[in-house]
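User: We ran a pulldown and think these components assemble together. Before we commit to crystallization trials, I'd like a predicted model of the whole complex to look at. Sequences follow.
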Amino acid sequence: MQPSESTNLYFHIAADQLKMPEWLRRLLITPKREVTVQVAFERDNGDVETVLGYRVQHDNARGPMKGGLRYHPTVNLDEVRALASLMTWKTAVVDLPYGGAKGGIGIDPKTLSKKELERMTRVFVDQIHEIVGPDSDIPAPDMGTNHEVMSWFRNQWEKYHGFNPAVITGKPVEEYGAKGREEATGRGVGLLAVKLLKRINVRPEQCRTAIQGFGNVGSHASKFLFESAFPVVAVSDVSGTYFNSKGLNILEMFSYSIKNNNRLEGYSGAEKLPAEALLELDIDLLIPAALGDVITKENADKIRAKTIIEAANGPVDPEADEKLAARGIMILPDILANAGGVTVSYFEWVQNRQHYRWSLDRVRQELDHTLSEAFENVWQQSATLSVSLRTAAFMLAIGRVQRATELAGGTG
Ligand code: NAD
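Assistant: Here's a predicted model for the assembly, 412 residues in total across the polymer chains.
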């Protein structure tokens, strides 16, 4: 199944519940604009490398479009299209005044030197600068991009349009970034895990947890949960799974990974298993925080966790979702679970526009407040209508986009 087919399937399940007419479904699903551009840049040895860059702007009924930039070899138009629509539903479910977009380049950034990465980013901006801006479409980091890439992006965009740091979020703190943005997605995952456990009457100390991926999201989620007394028994990255049945020393692993170029390779304080072993461990809570489509109909029956929190975008495909639901496994869906990042991106944009800076405490408090409210709304909707948390989240989101579209005169 193509990524956009999966996302649209979840959309239709919620739209059925809302008894939404066919013409409106088509209007809400169809992206406003899809752009594919040539990104040709010079390698350090003088060769010219040509790759494809994408920006999909899905919907702007609720505000300027917002969504990350992904540099990864699997990036293609369909994946970007799916991720752009997820951003529309994500910003709506947490009630940020934004629509959804996404972009990226189909390349492995680890194969580039820093200078090559910068040149490629600047050429990409040359190609798309006219369609992004603080009031139209605001990019942010995603897999394979970071605050440095955001800085180059902003600098190149400002060469055309003048000073305006609100054009992009996830910038370095000393260059108009927000305190707490780096940790925000992982912290949000952790905050929501605590709220979910309270609702199902499980104490953190009883919740053996495994987290796939130890990058930006996975490492900060692990740290938050470790500090909240969850026994984190396994974490993984591309180099493998690191396991300790009594609980890992996450703070030690966190510092190790930072010193080791964001990799766990070589960490010796835990038992080492193959990377794919993590998903099938005997645990209570599973948090996929790496790639999409890691739980499919092939391995869904082997999942032993009782609860899944989707920190990555689209880690559970619809066939697996159905199988897991039939076994009573509860899933907190991506559009809510990983919304902490876009929420703090919104705070960054607000600060940039007001030329004002918030303290880290304020950022954390407002994040907790925004996610708590969204979680409670989704939980109540799910309980009242006896639908899954995913369908409840999509219903809330789609309902809000529908209302904004109607208020604007019917066509968004
Ligand atoms: P990242 O590039 O910082 O980290 C990805 C991690 O996944 C790395 O540790 C990598 O080693 C690991 N990984 C890759 N393949 C793996 C495999 N087969 N098995 C185990 N680990 C593997 O990316 P990130 O920013 O942490 O994003 C992770 C996910 O979260 C993505 O789906 C992204 O779209 C989503 N997300 C990120 C943010 C954000 O703010 N960064 C916000 C919302 C959603």
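The two ends are 29 Å apart (CA to CA). That may be worth checking against your pulldown data before setting up trials.

User: Thanks, that helps.
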